[in-house]
DNA sequence: ATCCCGAGGG
DNA sequence: CCCTCTGGAT
C-alpha cells in the first residue's frame, strides 16, 4: 500500500480530521501552536479563551509583561519558556511585520519560539499553503507505517512524506496522520485490533531501534 | 544531548 | 508510579 492509499484508508476511519486548536485569527493560531509544544491541544484550548480575551492581538500581547502572561498558561507546562516566547514573538510581530503574521518559512521562523513544525502548521492552517508539519504523532506514525526509517530526522520525514504524497493532499494528510496517531496508533497502547495496517507495521522494529539508541 | 514543566491517563 | 502530550532553544 502506498502513502496515498494509506491516506484513503485513514480518511475512511477519520473523515473529519482537522485542526483542533481554537483560534480566531492567524495570530491566535500562531500563539496556540507555540503553546501546544509537548502539550495536548485539549489543554491548550482550556487556557486560550481567557488568554485571548485579555490579549486578543499581538498589539495587546506585546504590551503585556511576561509575569502577567504566565498565570494564564501555567497549567500547560513549559510555561516560562512559552510566556517568554509569545511575548517576544508579539513584540517582533508588531515591530517587524506591523502585527501581520507572515507566511514564509524565513519570516515565521525568525519569531521567538517558532520552529519548522510551528511554521508548517501556520502555513497550512492559516494560509492554506501546501505544507507537512512533522510532530511527535506524524513522526511515530510515519515510521510505524514504513514511510520513513527509524533513524530519520523530522526534516527527513517531512521530505519523504512530501515526496510520497500528492501535493494537494499534504494539508489534509497532516491532520489525517495526527488523528490516526492521536486516537488509534497512540504512542503507548495503540489499538492494533482496529488497525488496517498491521500486515506491514514496523512498530516493533521502531521500538527496538529506540531501545538501542537509548543505551550509551 | 539537555532542559523546560504541568496535567491527564493507565 | 510512569509515560505522553501537534517543540524549540541552548
Word description of this protein:
The protein has 216 residues and is mostly helical. Helix 1 crosses helix 11 (170-183), helix 5 packs across helix 6 (79-97) and helix 9 packs across helix 11. The chain folds into two domains: 3-16 and 133-214, Helix-hairpin-Helix base-excision DNA repair enzymes (C-terminal) (Endonuclease Iii, domain 2, Orthogonal Bundle), CATH 1.10.1670.10; 26-127, Orthogonal Bundle (Endonuclease III, domain 1), CATH 1.10.340.30. The chain is built from twelve helices and no strands. It binds a DNA duplex (10 and 10 nucleotides) through residues 19-21, 33-34, 36-44, 74-82, 85, 112-118, 121, 133-138, 154, 174-175, 178, 181-182, 186-189.
Short structural description:
By secondary structure, the chain is mainly α.
Q: Give the number of helices.
A: 12
Kindly report the CATH topology of the largest domain: Endonuclease III, domain 1
Number of strands: 0
Radius of gyration: 18 Å
CATH architecture label name of the largest domain: Orthogonal Bundle
Question: How much helicity do the residues have?
Answer: 55-70%
Overall mean pLDDT score? 97
Shape: elongated
Integer tally of domains: 2
Give the biggest beta sheet: none
The residue ranges in which pLDDT falls below 50 over 5 or more consecutive positions are: none
What pattern of helices and strands is seen along the backbone? HHHHHHHHHHHH
CATH top level label of the largest domain: Mainly Alpha
**DSSP strand content:** under 5%
Structural class estimated from helices and strands = mainly alpha
Could you state the CATH homologous superfamily of the largest domain?
Hypothetical protein, domain 2
GO molecular function: 4 iron, 4 sulfur cluster binding; class I DNA-(apurinic or apyrimidinic site) endonuclease activity; DNA binding; DNA N-glycosylase activity; metal ion binding
Protein name: Endonuclease III
Enzyme class: lyase
Family: Belongs to the Nth/MutY family.
